[in-house]
Amino acid sequence: MLVDILRLVFIAGGLVFIFMLVQACWRKKQSGSFETTPFWPVALIGGVANFLDTLGVGSFAVKTACYKQFKLIDDRVLPGTLNGQCVLPTVTQSLIFVGAVAVDPLTLICMMMAAAAGAAWGARHVASFDRQTIRLVMAISLLVVAGLIFAGLLGLFPVGGDAMGLSGYKLAIALLGNFIFGVLMNVGIGLFAPCMTLVYLLGMNPLAAFPIMMGSTAVLSVFSAGTFIRKGAFDAKAVLAVAIFGPIGVVLAAMLVKSMDMEMLKWLVAFIVIYTSWTMYASWRAVRRSPVQLTVESAG
Fold first, then answer.
1. Directed axis angle between helix 87-100 and helix 2-31, to 10°?
2. Contact 62/50 with Cβ under 8 angstroms?
3. Does the model's pTM come out above 0.85?
4. Per the count of CB atoms within 10 A, which of 22, 61, 231, 285 is most buried?
5. How far apart are CA 126 and CA 20, in angstroms?
6. Which of 18, 22, 27, 72 is nearest to 45 (CA)?
């Protein structure tokens, strides 16, 4: 029953987004401002990025790197475009994993609500955050966590477990963590890898992270993308391309994840954490070397 209600919520959010996107595309076509962005390269990048996203590797970093490399998307509308592109893929992820992975309902709903509350709070206070400090702390923290996970996989340190739910102080830690991860989404730090790491360290089955992190992101993305669409701060053609082909990458990756051996999945988590740690450090270093970009970020 609960799974059906959650699926209806995700579907309703997806339908609202589709209506808003079609309406925005129609208005842009009527006014002659519909973008000339190449459809197929963006669609291909979106499909691959969302395939990786379903495995736990955040799609924002992959898409941003490709768009900048091939000069496909104007930087001015990149944040809104990325947010709009992730809605239907994350809704698809949620529909697949919420029913397929038997996570404790209380843990799932509470962590989704914590992430949403964090994102809402962060949206109002994000201007006062020091992005550089956050990136560096997250990079170091994730690197330490990766070391603990590898130690556990090699039998040197007890970590991970088979639990599909949390209670007591562990649930409290998980809620606080997901609230913080929701806040950090406002400064461009994805929720997937930190959330996956947290539930794993709290003794949960790594597969349990998938419906939690995807359900959290699906709820958040509908609201954030809607804001950008209403402001017109997005590339409609690029969003449309990934709205169509992103879910295809999700379905293909979901088939792979659900057929994975649990030991292989644990190794995947470890490598995702290391990769995310490196991307955080790379972002910190890039801004540190570019005083102009640092000034812009501090201002905004």
1. 170
2. no
3. no
4. 61
5. 26
6. 72
| SS3 category, 204 | strand
**Is 104 buried (19+), middle (13-18) or exposed (0-12) by CB count in 10 A?**
middle
C-alpha closest to that of 132 among 286, 237, 266: 286
DSSP state of 128: G
Rounded distance between C-alpha atoms, residue 193 and residue 190, angstroms? 7
Strand, helix or coil for residue 73: coil
Cα–Cα distance for residue pair 175/230, rounded to 1 Å: 31
Into how many domains does the chain fold?
1
Domain containing 75 equals: 2-28+35-299
Q: How far, in Å, CA of 67 to CA of 132, rounded?
A: 23
User: Could you give phi then psi for residue 163, rounded to 5 degrees?
Assistant: -65, 145
Token pair recorded at residue 61: 């970093």
Collapsing DSSP states into helix, strand and coil, what is residue 163?
strand
What angle do helix axes 209-231 and 192-201 make, rounded to 10 degrees?
A: 160
3-class SS letters over 14-53: HHHHHHHHHHHHHHHHHHCCCCCCCHHHHHHHHHHHHHHH
For the stretch 55-94, pLDDT in tens is 877 787 788 878 877 889 987 888 888 889 989 999 999 9
Cβ proximity of 20 and 221 under 8 Å: no
Q: Which tokens belong to 140?
A: 């170091």
* Closest by CA position to 97, among listed 222, 28, 6, 18: 6
